[in-house]
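Input.
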Amino acid sequence: MTQDLDQRTQFTIDLARRAGELGMKYFRDLENLTIESKGHQDLVSDADREVELFVRAAIAEAYPDDGIVGEEHAPAAGSTGYVWVIDPIDGTANFVRGIPAWCVVIACAKDGGTVVGVIHEPSTGETFHGRLGGGAFLNGRPIKASNAASLSEGSVGTGISNRAETQNVVTLIGMLMAEGGMFYRNASGALMLAYAASGRLLGYVEEHMNAWDCLAGMLLVEEAGGTVQKADPATVLADGTKVITGGKHVFLKLSSLCEQAFGQP
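Output.
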């Protein structure tokens, strides 16, 4: 099992970097990119679709019996219990406007639980990766979630979900700042989860995220010694989940603030 996960991890790292190279070709040629709106502040481009097709083809060749779930194309069923979960470009709103804060996200889940997660940011050349039970790394070097004792010691990444009331995150930000904390948003939830895993942020929270946006990053935070509110493995692939993550000393406070701001499910 461990050897298989190691192989899957290295495959995912290599694939995310190759997908990032393809994404960069589109990023350098934005004037010729076709862009569509899927909803409020929710964009999709040719780059998203083509990068996902590239990733899907590589997975289908290497692991033909595994399932695949991606943001831009229909899911493919598998027979092994393994499912690959893909966001070809997280941070499309940044991507299409020439802002270099977007990433390729690939997770591998087994029976609904994430076992491999990779988040690659091509603009900086940073590759965050983790394997269940194997730790979390940035370009091969171990990373650790924040050890801060208080929310006043840094910033918390905050996401905005189209599936939740906008006022809820506004309320959360007010409560966070009342605690002496600060919010941070760069329009890529996966990248902010990677920053939480590496201690750059105290944590990351969002009332609802789709599986392709959050599974890789949640694994990274946990493997980096942080705390994560567990997703339901039976429903997360289809329905997504609430995301609350943080360094081990601030997680309970952060979770309490989220409960008050978001309400109970």
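The mean pLDDT is 93.
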